[in-house]
Automatic annotation (TrEMBL):
Function, as annotated: Translation factor that promotes translation elongation and termination, particularly upon ribosome stalling at specific amino acid sequence contexts. Binds between the exit (E) and peptidyl (P) site of the ribosome and promotes rescue of stalled ribosome: specifically required for efficient translation of polyproline-containing peptides as well as other motifs that stall the ribosome. Acts as ribosome quality control (RQC) cofactor by joining the RQC complex to facilitate peptidyl transfer during CAT tailing step.
Protein name per Swiss-Prot or TrEMBL: Eukaryotic translation initiation factor 5A
GO BP term (any one): positive regulation of translational elongation
Sorted UniProt keywords: Hypusine, Initiation factor, Protein biosynthesis
Record region (Disordered): 1-21
Record has Protein biosynthesis as a keyword: yes
GO molecular function, one term: translation elongation factor activity
UniProt modification remark: eIF-5A seems to be the only eukaryotic protein to have a hypusine residue which is a post-translational modification of a lysine by the addition of a butylamino group.
UniProt cross-references to InterPro entries, sorted A to Z: IF5A-like, IF5A-like_N, IF5A_C, NA-bd_OB-fold, Rib_uL2_dom2, Trans_elong_IF5A_hypusine_site, Translation_prot_SH3-like_sf
PROSITE patterns for this protein: IF5A_HYPUSINE
């Protein structure tokens, strides 16, 4: 036996809390799926008939929920896909500060002050006009 101690550093993340397995045949329009490691909202699903190798295929078209890019994937309907855990939270806008941050009211009645205004001029003007 060796007297050396072995130290292993784990830099991998299983990502188990970010997604859950879901059968491809059960995912419907307006659901969520992970396509090319990006969380997407499904905007179109089409299912082909069983082919000569015995699997029906599902063709998914999804919109990335962060970048709004369109992504596509084809998966056998009996196989499992990753589906992201998606939580949507609505806040009420209280104030827009001079330094580019907004004050938001949470559902519990607390304020959230660490959110910066977007840099897109069109979206920025919509927010400011809606607040005024």
């Amino acid at each position: 036996m060796s007297d050396e101690e072995h130290h292993f550093e784990s830099k991998a993340d299983a990502g188990a809390s970010k997604t859950y397995p879901q059968q491809a045949g059960t995912i419907r329009k307006n659901g969520y799926i992970v396509i090319k490691n990006r969380p997407c909202k499904v905007v179109e699903v089409s299912t082909s008939k069983t082919g000569k190798h015995g699997h029906a295929k599902c063709h998914f078209v999804g919109i990335d929920i962060f970048t709004a890019k369109k992504l596509e994937d084809i998966v056998p309907s009996s196989h499992n896909c990753d589906a992201p855990h998606v939580n949507r939270t609505d806040y009420q806008l209280i104030d827009i500060s001079e330094d580019g941050f907004v004050s938001l009211l949470t559902e519990s009645g607390n304020t959230k002050d660490n959110l910066r205004l977007p840099t897109d001029e069109n979206l920025l003007s919509q927010i400011k006009d809606g607040f005024a």
